[in-house]
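Please discuss these two lines.
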Amino acid sequence: MSGLRPREPLQGRIVRVEPIAEPHREGLRQAAEREPQIHRFTGMYLVGFERWFDEALASETEVPFVVHVDGRPVGSTRFLNVEPFHRRTEIGWTWLERPQWGTGVNIETKYLLLRHAFEDWGAMRVEFKTDARNLRVRGALLGIGATFEGIFRKHMVLPDSIRDSAWYAIVDDDWPRVKGLLERKIEEQTRPE
């Protein structure tokens, strides 16, 4: 697990991604509570902010991160389902404040995490899964170059439904192409007007 936990924050042009820590609690709570409906497809929807944050802080099997823009927490993501022997992990539990959508924050966050996983940790495969009904996220995963691998039917029980999960992945053979795609998208998003 320690290999996936970066020694320094992952710094991009518009975001800084760093492992979650207690000092992030209040700022992240404010970001999470601005628009609670964005958590419809996240674990926070199931357990509430305090429990979600406490579990993230205490996790020994995942690497949760805080996403910062202009020094302020605007969301979270994490590495989970880490399998060092198989050189595989998943990026998930991602959420961002609605004003960050379409600004390049998600693209750059994914880029930094993918670059760290493939180039620093030596990942062979990075997976993503989402509720099959979450068409916005499914489109975003295709937009970052992930390959759709199928639907796992009746994959999870939610409080109000049974979830089918859509699975996506990027493998090390894909990484040079995906890296170039993401770098071009970041350049377009951050170019001064």
Q: What stands out?
A: The chain is about 35% helix and 30% strand.
